[in-house]
Amino acid sequence: MTQGFGQRMGARRRVGAGLILIMMALALTGCSTYAERNARLRDDVARHDFDKALEGIAEAERGSDRLLNLLEKGLVLHYADRWTESNAVFQEAEELADDLYTKSVSQAVVSLLTNDGTIDYRAAPFEMAMVPYFRSLNYVAMGDRDGALVEARKAELRLRDLAEVERALDQNDQESAVSLDDHAFVHILRGMLHEWGGEINDAFLAYRRAALAYGATGGVLGVKAPSCLGSDLVRTAGRLGFSDELAEIQTVLPNLFIEPDLPQGRVGRVVLFLETGWVPRRTSIEADIPIFESDRRGDMDLWASSLQSRYVYGWGRDVKISYWLRFALPDLIGEAPVIVGARVSTGTLGGHARTEPVESVASRSRLDFESSKDGILLKTIGRALSKYLAKEAIEDKSQLAGLLANVFGAATERADTRNWLTLPHGISMARLDLPPGTYDLEIELVDARDRIVDVRSIKDVAVRADGWVFLSRRVF
Amino acid sequence: MSTRIDCRLALALALVLAVAAMVSGCSGGKTVTRMETDSVVDLSGNWNDTDSRLTAETLISQSLGSGWYGEYRYQAGANPVVIVGPIRNKSAEHIPVKTFVADLERALINSGKVTMVASSEEREALRGERADQQEYSSVATMSAWGREMGADFMLLGEINTIIDREQGDEVKFYQVDVYLVNLETNVKAWAGYQKIKKYVSRDGYRP
Known about the structure:
The complex is a heterodimer.
Chain A: H1 5-28, H2 34-37, H3 41-46, H4 50-60, H5 66-79, H6 83-101, H7 108-113, H8 125-128, H9 131-141, H10 145-169, H11 184-196, H12 200-221, H13 228-240, H14 243-252, E1 268-276, E2 281-292, H15 300-313, E3 321-333, E4 341-345, E5 352-354, E6 356-359, H16 361-397, H17 399-412, E7 426-434, E8 437-446, E9 452-463, E10 468-475
Parallel strand pairs in A: 1-10
Antiparallel strand pairs in A: 1-7, 2-3, 4-5, 4-8, 6-7, 8-9
Chain B: H1 2-25, H2 49-64, H3 67-76, E1 81-90, H4 97-111, E2 115-116, H5 120-136, E3 153-166, E4 169-182, E5 188-200
Parallel strand pairs in B: 1-2, 1-3
Antiparallel strand pairs in B: 3-4, 4-5
């Protein structure tokens, strides 16, 4: 029994309409990228509309982005001064991250037929390394010194874990250009927290790790050891009687000790962390290239060349398309922040300091992206091939099903654009050693040409002898 | 006919692919099961309610069974008055210290061998209430000032951890050190400790 031309056309139209519906459904549901779903997030945070930012995160949540959503949420809650909630969410994020790193990736199969966005986001090591920083600031704000110290201890373990994960993920078994175990900023933060808690030995060890890490990675990251680090080492080594250990560091890093550690009597230390701008975000570069039935596939070079010119210049109408090749690759785009630092003053003699860059999250993000680029490209090609082979196999049974497989493959092709969007571009630090008293801090925010962009103030900063005050501000 | 088969195949494939896409974005369900509060369940290997309770009971049992107690009873002819002071968390884990302090207090009170007095935080609340009574309660029922019982000993301590990790496997070693200090003389009348060692095995990291 044969069908008439009109019946066949009607059936094809119905199937065609079905395909369009499926594509629309996919586009509306599972196929929007993380960046697209969180398009408003940065604007909401910059406007300090934290409730709206949290609403947006909740609305945009997808199963595979769970960890990322927790990280975004934890940071937004931190900026909203909801410290307890922020810590609870970060705790959940850390537990989930541990869990995800120890699971096999069964989702890889699905990702080969759809996109990498279907795989659980596991966070880059440099992202997880920032969690103890924000959590310790939460505990500081709550006046919970023991809690902050737990974060300092946890940070060391986490860096050790992340280095192990990094090594495990490195398929070529090569050391990365910048080892995350040498996270200088986290080490100097640990040092200051330990010293605040009276744990001088731990403080000295952390300062030493920070000094060595700045020496090893500062050039790649574009940051150098802050001027206070030499004094911190001299002070803590002096209290412990670690003259040999100090001499060893002085030999390795003589520039660290240019500023003399003058005895200042009993002072308290004010630390201001200035978080500037936004970490680069991932975007998607997409390409659509039709493969014609008439394509000669014998000579791969020739075929690749003709596909390239087709991609660049387009193609005529009078062709029969056998396969719609679509691939999407992530790219990293970022902007240098307008505000790059600050001049901090108490208005008293000796109460002046400039912030110094201590951490470049942007550089770490770029390094992480660059190191994963080859893997991403390989995976994208693998995915394109899988989709093509799936279509060919299905087409043997049914042409229409093959067409549908092609449409599905093309519609679901998305670059994995996920990264922690609310992280800052970088962190700079100002340190003031002040006699006991209460101070108002004036903070002149400056751009790259040292012009004042804005002025902020922090009132009633109480400084106690031998005490530490930790403050942080986020500027955009 | 062939178009009809095509349509069925296409529909089946669409369903399979749609399910695959949905599965990748859906999270699993949740199951809640009630359990006995004294049952031992180790999920993460972190400090948990069982560690807190058993450590407190062991330490208090050790303390009240040691020489200082009999000596004090012999000299004073009464139970010692004890207060639980700060227990510092020096571990790399957020341990709910207040729960542990409550477990210590409960073990001390339930032993029947000591008299416990309220902590400094609790005393503030009690004094507030007492001040309130002076204004609003009848003379016959109001609590008098200056009749608080002072403690003879304070229990102090700290929780430390040593964590050894390799390839996803982890050994967690908790040591809880507590001291009973004579409040008048600062003499440490007793020192005790409890150790807990846990081995946490995880699947290896897989990219």
